[in-house]
Amino acid sequence: MLEVRNITVQYGPVVAVKDVSMVVRPSSITVLLGANGAGKTSTLMAIAGLNRVSSGQIIFDGERIDKLPAYEIVKRGLVLCPESKLVFHKMTVMENLKVGAYTRKDDVSEELDFVFQLFPRLKERAKQLAGTLSGGERQMLVIARSLMAKPKCILFDEPSMGLAPNLVAEIMKVIQKIKETGKTILLVEQNAYSALKIADYAYIMKNGRIVFEGYPKDLLKDKTIVEKYLGG
Ligand SMILES: Nc1ncnc2c1ncn2[C@@H]1O[C@H](COP(=O)(O)OP(=O)(O)O)[C@@H](O)[C@H]1O
Ligand SMILES: [Mg+2]
Questions:
Q1: Which tens digits make up the pLDDT trace of 195-211?
Q2: What is the pLDDT of residues 146-157, one digit of tens each?
Q3: Considering its fold, how many domains does the chain have in total?
Q4: Which whole-number Å values give the CA distances from 220 to 145, 171, 192, 228, in the listed order?
Q5: Is 146 buried (19+), middle (13-18) or exposed (0-12) by CB count in 10 A?
Q6: Are residue 55 and residue 144 in the same domain, yes or no?
Q7: Is there a single domain that holds both residue 15 and residue 98?
Q8: Which of the ligands is closest to the CA of residue 42?
């Protein structure tokens, strides 16, 4: 579905991502873990077309996308749910959701029904200004907005960041439900254990490189990996 082949991402002289390769299988959850500054966000931004790669290739649905502008990548069904929980404050919840569907000309009612089923609170607050939502509700809105593009594949950048533990669990359940509708997910998380519970496959990044890949159960069995990269 999504294949990253030996990509390098640089910010001037700073090499943030070095020769990274990953495979994300259809209708699965692949988790990308790693400490702050490891290069996770830079990798997701490169896939979404918001960072240019200085070498390597990115293939989505059999097509090279690493030279395409970001909106063309969205049109092909690959969306990024970004780290910054930015919503349009002076627009209502409903208007924010419609922005998520901006690349589409078809009927969006099916996606709207699905996001309101996932997040009943957003339905109750459809006419409320997004700026007045709580942190958790904003995060739900950001996720819901990315679903409105009718993506085949979603890149989540630390969706549980800054949320209380019960909300972290709720977000993980939501991501699992999104997968169950057949979508493909690449999930970046600091909450390694919560993410590994729902993941089908895992990668760990350190200093811009992939240092481990494998199935979550094998990763958790490996004491040195757990101690070294997941903080015991
Ligand atoms: N816009 C930028 N300009 C320069 N350096 C950056 C920029 N964004 C990220 N970096 C650097 O790239 C490295 C990887 O950052 P990032 O991809 O945000 O890591 P992570 O998401 O894993 O925390 C860090 O050393 C960071 O300081
Ligand atoms: Mg990051």
A1: 999 999 999 999 999 99
A2: 999 999 999 999
A3: 2
A4: 33, 22, 10, 12
A5: buried
A6: no
A7: no
A8: 1
